[in-house]
């Protein structure tokens, strides 16, 4: 696989994403459903957003790994949250640590939604290549 990052500017680097990613000669593409703070028994977390984000990240890492892919090859990540303000103020450090941990270079869209399933307040949807 050949992956090329396109960044006409530098300001997005401190925000943990890139403007575009071109992928050529991929041998597979994994489209992950939204991963949220759902425990292994299927129950939704009712914890605060920080705690939910940590569990959502763990769940995404598990799905990606089980499929035989690597998080470093996430090329698109959509973050759904019930409060983008809370996400940016209280959770962005966790998000940036996740990106740094895997050396990810991905495009990101942050979307505030009215509600998520049951008690959930953050969800991560990813596209991964190899």
Description of the structure:
With 130 residues, the protein is an alpha+beta fold. The protein has one domain (2-129): 2-Layer Sandwich (60s Ribosomal Protein L30, Chain: A). Strand 5 (74-81), helix 2 and strand 6 form a beta-alpha-beta unit. The chain has 2 helices and 7 strands; from the N terminus they run ββββαβαββ. Keywords: Hydrolase. This is RidA family protein. Its EC number is 3.5.-.-. It holds the Pfam family Ribonuc_L-PSP.
Note the main attributes of this structure.
130 residues, alpha+beta, 60s Ribosomal Protein L30, Chain: A, two-stranded antiparallel ribbon, globular, EC 3.5.-.-, RutC-like_sf, hydrolase activity, YjgF/YER057c/UK114
Please tell me how large the radius of gyration is. Answer: 14 Å
Work out the strand percent: 25-35%
Given as residue ranges, the uncertain stretches (5+ residues, pLDDT < 50) are none
The CATH architecture can be given as 2-Layer Sandwich
CATH superfamily membership, which one? RutC-like
Order of helices and strands: EEEEHEHEE
Helix percent band: 25-40%
> In terms of structural class, how would the helical and strand content be classed?
alpha+beta
- The total beta strand count reads 7
Class, according to the CATH hierarchy?
Alpha Beta
Q: Tell me the distance between the termini.
A: 6 Å
Shape: globular
Mean pLDDT across all residues, rounded? 96
Helix count, DSSP H or I runs of 4 or more residues: 2
Largest sheet: 5 strands, mixed
Number of domains: 1
Keywords: Hydrolase
GO molecular function: hydrolase activity
InterPro entries: RutC-like_sf, YjgF/YER057c/UK114
Enzyme class: hydrolase
